[in-house]
Amino acid sequence: MSEHIVPVRVYVTIFLVLLVGTALTVLAAFQDFSVRLGTHEIPFNTVIALAIAVTKATFVVLYFMHVRYSSRLVWVVVTSALFWLAIMFALTFSDYWTRGWLPVGY
Amino acid sequence: MSHAASAEPHGHPALQHHFENMEQQREAGTLGMWVFLVTEIMFFGGMFLAYTLYRSAYPSAFASASNHLDITMGAVNTGVLILSSFTMAMSVYFTQIGKSRPQILCLIATIILGLTFLGIKAVEYRQKYEDSLIPGRLIPTRPFNPAVAYEGEVNEHKLHLIGNATVHQVELFYWIYFAMTGMHALHMIIGAGLLTFLLYFSIKGRYGPEYHSPVEVIGLYWHFVDIVWIFLFPLLYLLGRHLEHV
User: Fold this and answer.
1) What is the pLDDT tens value at each position of chain B, 246 positions in all?
2) CB atoms near residue B192 (< 10 Å)
3) Do residue A22 and residue B226 have CB atoms under 8 angstroms apart?
4) Domains defined for chain B, CATH in brackets
5) What are phi and psi of B131, to 5 degrees?
6) ipTM for the complex?
7) Within an 8 Å CB–CB cutoff, is residue B99 touching chain A?
8) Is residue B37 within 8 Å of B224, Cβ to Cβ?
9) Which residues does chain B have within 8 Å of residue A14's beta carbon, measured at their own beta carbons?
């Protein structure tokens, strides 16, 4: 069998990283990180929460789900999911967020 | 594929006739599970899209509703689910190295942690029921009708509306909250069922270093459900907390 067996200390490390990430995201939620740029307010709280969530999810996928040690075919399938998800979000918001940008003549 | 090889008797009773060997069979199983998980990502992705859309449309209403959720229960449940993912990963590990007893104990731990998550979730749902926060008329005798706190009033059982938020917009948040956490809970229930199936055949001694695809593949599903919660927890419970005292 050419299968890779992930050592226990890797699993324990990932587990601790995930717990620390959860604690960090709870602590960060109560601080106000929003930044004002002219008339726009940039919601950095959302950016920080999503960055921590994406980091946690990446650790789960790579180590608990063994993708780091999996075949290229599995890599392609996992990436394709993110790719199609990005298409769904990008095309939907290119509609919703641009409504009313141009005056419509009736 | 050589015909001479296929005529030989199979090396392992679990090897299906259309695979060359156990390694190929295992890789095909893992790939198949990943393809299924891609469809699951798109399925939950649609709900995350709806969430993003309405959160950007009604930010203060979503913050008001989000702040009313129980952050302690949400955080404890996140920890429970992460621990269950760890015990699941350890169960796969012990199957790979052929240690049956710790593998079975890890499976039992995973099932208990999964049920703990569902129990805490049920307590939360009950609180929402008591506060009349179940959206629409899903429960005909208790329609959506939350008590709203007046300015400056501190009452944890009442909803504190931030800025120009309306009760109707808050109801929209609760539709999304129950759809997403409900669908996630359904996946947990299915997962607990699959783990019970694994436990039964693990006790019968079916899995070992040569054959552990079912443990690995159901593990992938369990980790996926964990990942969905990793996103649900900050998005539903945490965003908007810093606005609480504004």
Assistant:
1) 444 444 445 578 889 999 999 999 999 999 999 999 999 999 999 999 999 999 999 999 999 999 999 999 999 999 999 999 999 999 999 999 999 999 999 999 999 999 999 999 999 999 999 999 999 999 999 999 999 887 777 777 788 898 889 999 999 999 999 999 999 999 999 999 999 999 999 999 999 999 999 999 999 999 999 999 999 999 999 998 888 754
2) 20
3) no
4) 45-243 (1.20.120.80)
5) -90, 10
6) 0.92
7) no
8) yes
9) 86, 89
